[in-house]
Design brief:
Helix content: 25-40%
CATH architecture of the largest domain: 3-Layer(aba) Sandwich
Number of strands: 12
Number of helices: 16
Number of domains: 2
CATH topology of the largest domain: Rossmann fold
Length: about 425
């Protein structure tokens, strides 16, 4: 195959990964038994609207008719008939998300013993369910979120802090719905598929503590704003823990996960005569460093091989005299990869976020190949400058290597594939 065909194969693999995570393919096999009372549907995440629309289609004309509300990222809405869809900001929370979270919590609190509360949860729900705990200033919570994002903290640490500043996360939503029965259908976007980390676990028991949240901020060198510091120090209202009787009627089902998408991509590679190697679906670390490590691994491979991986890397912002560009963890990974490959023949790669948004840009990611350095030079760009300024999107826009999908209406985190064809 030539470079153009390899690029097309990489995109086919990514498309297969997205298709495997489509809510329309996942929801139908997990419909609950109709309750005696009301069917209240709530939810949050980048896939929440698509999950709600898919649930309505699968539920059909059964009684009771669903009612309720879900919140998703701006631009990630879907058409529904009865379940209201609200759009809000991600990854930094905004007032629309706070109001949606307040209304969703109110719906749960209004459920009775004969009702069923169906929670549709996916990645992104942490920022979208942005209802601060009593006494926590919303603006200060927004500022803390920005600081955590810039610190390079992994998602587990971020969500531990979020849970302890929230009126709805860390099992509080399930506790509010008691004594109604609750069923959560979740699509994972986190390494390890931990229900307590996906969207900060609003419907499951929380094993983290206020003390851990404080320790994370200390370790990251983040000074908590006044209202946040007071709330964390007081530790007056711990999250529901395992064994909490308010969670005894809450059931949790994971219906979509990163590994399923990686396996779908592997099948496409195998059908094309390429040996797939799944490196893991829970790989974390600094994006540029991981790119360099995987480049070294690719250079050591021989034959036709596809190195496939998922997970959630981080980008630690290196602030200095150089003005920052526009980036995201997937394009930063590719910058690190390309800088190590130095145009090596027979290697191409794709890295994209499965929600269609890498960082703050409406771009999923990019593809690199042996011609990337040459195209960069022609465009007056260098990998060194792009890495120094975290300017992956600017770099790949200039080289013509961006992958733009638009909102995919799902989210199983990052997808990476390195295609090697070397003798």
């Amino acid at each position: 195959m030539n470079v153009a065909e390899d690029r097309a194969l990489l995109r086919d693999m990514f498309d297969a990964a997205l298709a495997a995570a489509a809510p329309a393919r996942l929801i139908g096999g997990h419909l609950p038994q109709p309750p005696a009372g009301r069917l209240i549907v709530i939810g949050a995440g980048k896939a929440a609207a698509s999950m709600a629309a898919s649930f309505e289609a699968a539920w059909g004309a059964q009684s009771p008719a669903p009612e309720g509300m879900v919140v998703t990222r701006y631009g990630h809405g879907a058409l529904t008939k009865r379940i209201k869809v609200v759009e809000a900001s991600h990854p930094e929370p905004d007032e629309a998300g706070r109001e949606a979270a307040r209304r969703i919590l109110s719906l749960a609190e209004g459920a009775g013993e004969g009702d069923l509360v169906l929670a549709l949860i996916s990645g992104g729900g942490s920022a979208l369910l942005s209802l601060p705990a009593p006494g926590v200033d919303f603006g200060e919570k927004q500022a803390l979120t920005r600081a955590l994002l810039a610190s390079g903290a992994p998602i587990g640490e971020m969500n531990c802090v979020r849970k302890h500043l929230s009126a709805i996360k860390g099992g509080r939503l399930a506790a509010a719905a008691f004594p109604a029965r609750m069923l959560t259908l979740a699509i994972s976007d986190v390494p390890g598929d931990d229900p307590g980390v996906i969207a900060s676990g609003p419907t499951v028991a929380d094993e983290t503590t206020f003390a851990e949240a404080r320790a994370i901020l200390d370790r990251r060198g983040i000074a908590a704003p006044p209202s946040v510091a007071r709330h964390l120090e007081a530790a007056a209202d711990e999250t529901p823990k395992p064994g909490d009787p308010r969670l005894m009627r809450a059931e949790y089902r994971l219906i979509g996960a990163p590994m399923l998408s990686l396996q779908a991509a592997a099948a496409v590679a195998k059908a094309a005569g390429v040996r797939p190697v799944i490196l893991g679906d829970a790989i974390e670390g600094e994006a540029r460093d991981l790119g360099a490590e995987m480049a070294a691994q690719a250079l050591a491979e021989r034959g036709a091989v596809a190195l496939i991986s998922g997970g959630e890397t981080t980008v630690t912002i290196r602030r200095g005299a150089t003005p920052l560009g526009s980036g995201g963890r997937n394009v930063e990974f590719l910058l690190g990869l390309a800088a190590t490959l130095k145009g090596a023949r027979g290697i191409s790669a794709i890295a994209c976020d499965t929600d269609g948004v890498d960082g703050m840009q409406e771009v999923a990611g990019a593809i690199v190949d042996e011609g990337t350095p040459e195209r960069a030079e022609a465009a007056g760009r260098t990998l060194e400058d792009a890495l120094a300024r975290h300017d992956g999107h600017g770099f790949f826009a200039a080289t013509g290597d961006q992958v733009a999908t638009g909102p995919t209406l799902t989210n199983v985190n990052d997808f990476r594939a390195i295609l090697v064809r070397r003798g």
